[in-house]
């Protein structure tokens, strides 16, 4: 799912963009703004991947807004072709001319998706493990649990069914090394990559891997972390 935010000073344009996004599989509109200043005040606190910015707006145009947006992919929309060169100077994903067609917007999202996947594949951190200092790609992590041998260590279950042990690392410090939108702690001893959650209830989750017995892996969601899990999965 690609989460996007819309900024356009025209309410009809926002409604139309929402309608198009609803028709494209894998796209979700998190929030929409018609005021650039309000958008900039809130965007850093919004969990989203892509910002769809109208260029021609009173007071502050989309080009100026884009220069102030950090860590988000940008898709520009505009009725004016003369902005194209300036738009691509900002290294944005795409530049979509109005009136916008569904197929053209879908093409822009496909470009954004490829860039987001590539970025995610390249995210990693380095830490001391049972194998020595190791580079760990976060997209390969399925879940993490406190080691039964030494509570200061963390056992990592990876996509290729291998396991490694992170030495002397707390969940608090580990969480700072991970992309926070993708990981959530579910109880005192376990944290999971939410992309691998298949089923969730108030008391447990089921991951897309099997337990040693060959059954889908079920993990307990404790009372202390229940609201945190619910909030993270609802974003």
UniProtKB/TrEMBL annotation:
Matching InterPro entries: CheY-like_superfamily, LytTR_DNA-bd_dom, Sig_transdc_resp-reg_receiver, WalR-like
Pfam families, per the entry: LytTR, Response_reg
Start and end residues of each Response regulatory domain: 3-113
Key words, A-Z: DNA-binding, Phosphoprotein
GO molecular function terms attached to this record: phosphorelay response regulator activity; transcription cis-regulatory region binding
Entry-annotated residues carrying 4-aspartylphosphate: 54
Gene3D superfamilies with a match to the protein in the record: 3.40.50.2300, LytTr DNA-binding domain (2.40.50.1020)
Name this polypeptide is given: Two component transcriptional regulator, LytTR family
Organism: Epilithonimonas hungarica
Upper lineage: Bacteria, Pseudomonadati, Bacteroidota, Flavobacteriia, Flavobacteriales
